[in-house]
Amino acid sequence: MSDAPSIVLDPVIHEAARLVIVSVLNECGAASFNFLLGTTGLTRGNLSAHMLRLVSSGYVHESKQIVDRKMLTEYRLTPVGRKAFAKYRAEWMRLTTGPKEQAT
Amino acid sequence: MHDPTTSDALPTPEQMRNYFAAGKSAQKARRLREASRAIITGNIAAFICLVETVLVVQHAGWTNSADGSGDAGRMLMVNVVICGFIAWFFLSLRWLKRQRSRSSVYVLDQYEAQRVPARRVRAVAMLVFAIMVLGTGVAFWTIDVNRIPQWSIIAFLSVGPFAVVSYFVCRCVIFRFWEDLLFAAAVALAYLPFPFQAWHLAPLCLATFPMVIVGTICLHFRWVRWQRSALLENVEAAGEEVRS
């Protein structure tokens, strides 16, 4: 039996759509709702629901402002979210490349 | 049911697909972010091309008149081009800032927003490296430029163009913009007459500026086109958002 601690992937990030959203946000400091719609390919309602979950988890910060009489909703990853995503990626790499490393 | 959030078992093909899809979206975001900075990239290429062109033009004797003495008119022209570029550089950065701040698709670079301390250290290291390279160059020049072998001067002056060409090739590999290859070709072409001492190829230097301009425009229009399409798709949606 292996003594290595078992891998625990963050269930908030592990969901397919949220993984896409967090990956995109990790590349941009801040992104508007429209930008996320364009890059993730999700529907409006779907994206809203997932953003709500990410905001309530404390991984994403939401700010709303009116620009040219239009509401501009902007999202950015919080330091907690960035850390969680980095941890998720490290765990994922351990999960997918772990057996190879152990063999060598 | 297999749950990789709590087990050490390998993820299912569907989960692997999700992971790769996320990677693809992240790459798309990265490409858009870089396309939105076309003016900055173009300015970097234009600056290097300008320095190389001046170097080649000086060595090719274009600034000299028929009797070999310096031609004030031509020198003035070179200086006007340099000053014009500096003015254009600041104006274009200002325009870029205004254009990006007006955009409803707002992207900031991760490092600009996050201010990663590791990047600061890297920036300081790069500055120290640049000062060391410049200091070494000045020291060699001060000793005696005539005693320095020709090949070492060429090698020293080639460091900059080589680094910039490598930078653009790396960018092309990462972001897959053909414009980056155009910038790399322009920088290489502008410098080519100098190491081979092929002064009859000096007019090629002038061709590099249209290349850089075309590359910058194409890269910029990638961003504009994408932004327009994203906006048109979401016009109705934006209205709903205001109402909600």
Computed Rg of chain B: 24 Å
Which residues of chain A sit in consecutive blocks of at least 5 with pLDDT less than 50?
none
The helix/strand order of chain A is HHEHHEEH
Overall structural class of chain B, as computed from helix and strand content, comes to mainly alpha
Q: If you had to describe this structure to a student in words, what would you say it looks like?
A:
The complex is a heterodimer of chains A (104) and B (244). Chain A has a single domain, classed as Orthogonal Bundle (Arc Repressor Mutant, subunit A). The radius of gyration of chain A is 16 Å and the shape is elongated. The mean pLDDT of chain A is 81. Chain A has helices spanning 11-14, 16-27, 33-40, 44-57, 79-103; strands at residues 28-32, 60-67, 70-77. With 104 residues, chain A is of the alpha+beta class. Chain A starts with 10 loop residues before the first helix and ends with a helix. A 3-stranded antiparallel beta sheet of chain A has the order 1-3-2. Chain B has one domain. Chain B is globular. The longest helix of chain B is centred in the middle third of the chain and has 31 residues, at 72-102. Chain B has 9 helices and 1 strand, in the order αααβαααααα. Chain A binds chain B through residues 2, 6-11, 14, 16, 19-20, 22-24, 26-35, 37-41, 44, 67-74, 76, 82, 92, 95-96, 98-99, and chain B through 4-8, 10-11, 15-16, 18-19, 21-23, 25-26, 28-30, 32-33, 104-114, 226, 229-231, 233-234, 237-238, 240-242.
Looking at this protein, list some descriptive labels:
heterodimer, A: 104 residues, alpha+beta, Arc Repressor Mutant, subunit A, three-stranded antiparallel beta sheet, 61% helix, B: 244 residues, mainly alpha, 9 helices, 78% helix, 1% strand, globular, disordered C terminus
